[in-house]
Amino acid sequence: MSNQMYRIATPYAEALLASARKNDLLPKITQDLSIILEILSHSLELRSMLSNPMINILTKKNILQALFKDQIDILILNFLFVLVDRRRIFLLDTIIEKYLELTYAIDSTVVANVSTAIEFTAIQQSLIIEKIKTMTSSKNVKLVMHIDSSLMGGFVLTIGSKVIDTSLSGKLRQISLYLNRV
Q1: What is the reported pLDDT for 40?
Q2: What is the Cα–Cα distance from 180 to 182, expressed in whole angstroms?
Q3: DSSP letter string, 22-43
Q4: 43-65 burial string, b = 16+ CB within 10 Å, else e?
Q5: Last residue of a domain, one of 86, 104, 122
Q6: CA distances from 64 to 7, 53, 67, 153, 177 (A)
Q7: Which residues contact 107 (CB under 8 A, 6 or more apart)?
Q8: Residue 15: how many CA atoms within 13 Å on its side-chain side?
Q9: Do 177 and 91 reside in the same domain of the chain?
Q10: Which structural domain, as residue segments, surrounds residue 126?
Q11: For residue 135, which of 167, 155, 110 has the smallest C-alpha distance?
Q12: What's the domain count of the chain?
């Protein structure tokens, strides 16, 4: 995502955060936005419809109303309508990511992306969460799990710009690079 898009998205995220705090809805709004982000990540059709300037505003609002009416807080639904009216709905995922980043900073929460070849068990997830808490000195950790069979084994942990690659494919790549230098 470009810097320009983040600059445009940041005031919207900050305004939404302020509104959620003012109305004492921070946990509910955060949960609703996480759901919307999950839906957007799995629905290419919805994503392309929202970002298509040829689809009129009323149609977009009707689709959002039908999708989310009884699932999300009215504050979020109205926020989505504002984004549609201002032709900024194409930035929705960026705005949500920025909002979550701001709320996690408030809560001292670290977001850790974990890519694994197979799904982690609950015990493995809790162990890695504890290790991340120790590494980052944060109170909370939000794990975002991704399954990537190309890793062959192990996992790749990404926290901000820091990447820890313990995957088998990563180790094989390191060996290959080493052997190519010799």
Answers
A1: 87
A2: 6
A3: HTT-HHHHHHHHHHHHHHHHH-
A4: eeebbebbeeeeeeeeebbeebe
A5: 104
A6: 25, 16, 5, 40, 49
A7: 139, 140
A8: 13
A9: no
A10: 109-181
A11: 110
A12: 2
What is the C-alpha to C-alpha distance for residues 142 and 87, in angstroms, rounded to an integer?
31
Phi, psi of 131 (to 5 degrees): -65, -40
Token output for 7: 């600059």
Integer CA distances (angstroms), 47 to 28, 33, 70, 97, in order: 23, 15, 20, 15
49 within 8 A of 63, measured Cβ to Cβ: yes
Q: What is the pLDDT of residues 97-152, one digit of tens each?
A: 899 888 888 878 888 899 998 989 999 999 999 999 988 888 889 888 989 888 88
Cβ atoms of residues 35 and 71 within 8 Å: yes
pTM of the full structure: 0.67
Same domain, 30 and 62: yes
pLDDT score recorded for residue 2: 66
Structure tokens at 61: 């609002």
So what's the pLDDT on residue 115? 92
Question: Are 9 and 72 found together in one domain?
Answer: yes
